[in-house]
Write a structure and sequence with these properties.
This protein is α/β, with parallel strands linked by helices. Helix content is 40%, strand content 17%. It has helices at residues 15-28, 43-47, 59-62, 92-97, 105-116, 132-140, 152-170, 192-204, 218-222, 230-233, 238-254, and strands at 2-6, 33-37, 73-74, 80-83, 121-125, 143-149, 178-187, 209-215. The protein has an eight-stranded mixed β-sheet, with helices on both faces. Helix 1 packs across helix 11 (238-254) and helix 5 runs parallel beside helix 6. The chain is globular.
Length: 271
């Protein structure tokens, strides 16, 4: 199981939308996906049609009072499971900050799930901040995908998140952590600005930049309000097509072949 953090400390860049859409698209391509909602705002949870629930969040596992496996729930999407979030998760920041193992605790919780081999990918939806939950998420990940809005302010945010990733490496909490990809979001082909920002990122991160770009479309913004993915809300729209293409590129970059979707299996970790 590869652990992939979808991370950007800047809000409003399409981070949670990317976490949901990438998870759903990978599941549709036959990958067994677990999504962890680590943002106390619980937008990934509600955006996939599940009611936020503090009791079901990572709050108690991160405090050592439950296992991660106990919090995994199945979604209505085949091959996609979720650990939901809730407002109580905001309180864990203070508790974790006091512990010596705050950077590695989430990784320790993920280890039994990795060993059980029930999932191919674990997608982490991280908070839009540089707090303890964000750093713990990065330290538990094998790689990072950075959603980046096609605006100049987005470039400033990119520099910051790259710096944080370097700090995580140097702390030895995750020395092999890599930036797997940068996915450009809210692209508007009618403007020079969007093209210029993509070109600027390409100059500095040619290997990491995804060829796929996510367009600016109202349908992508509407989908979470209905508790649906973009593939359910507007399956034939340009937003759904873009995220499907990005998911295929995600797999191609790893040399993973598409599999036929299989029926859901019960979570053996709970038995």
């Amino acid at each position: 199981m590869k652990v992939v953090a979808i991370a950007n400390q800047k809000g409003g860049v399409g981070k949670t939308t990317t976490a949901i859409s990438l998870s759903a698209a990978l599941a549709d391509l036959g990958q067994r996906v677990l999504m962890l909602d680590l943002d106390p705002q619980a937008n990934a949870t509600s955006g996939i049609g599940i009611e936020p629930n503090s009791e079901g969040s990572m709050y108690y596992p991160l405090l050592g009072e439950a296992t991660l496996a106990e919090k995994i729930v199945e979604t209505h999407i085949n091959n996609l499971s979720l650990v939901p979030s809730g407002m109580d998760l905001a309180g864990v920041e203070i508790e974790l900050a006091r512990s010596d193992d705050h950077l590695t605790r989430l990784r320790s919780l993920l280890d039994p799930v990795k060993q059980a081999d029930l999932f191919d990918f674990c997608i982490l939806d991280t908070p839009p901040s540089l707090g303890v939950l964000m750093t713990a998420s990065l330290a538990s990940a094998d790689e990072v995908v950075i959603p980046l809005q096609c605006e100049w302010f987005g470039l400033e945010g990119l520099a910051k998140i790259v710096h944080v990733i370097q700090q995580i490496r140097e702390s030895h909490a995750a020395p092999d952590l890599t930036i797997e990809g940068i996915l450009m979001t809210m692209f508007d082909g009618r403007t020079n600005l969007s093209r210029q920002v993509v070109e600027e990122v390409s100059n500095y991160f040619p290997e990491q930049l995804y060829k796929s770009v996510i367009p600016r479309t109202i349908r992508i913004g509407e989908a979470p309000s209905h508790g649906k993915t973009i593939f359910e809300h507007d399956p034939n729209g340009i937003g759904a097509l873009a995220y499907r293409t990005a998911a295929k590129e995600f797999l191609q970059r790893r040399g993973v072949k598409k599999r036929s979707p299989k029926a859901k299996k019960k979570n053996k970790l709970k038995s």
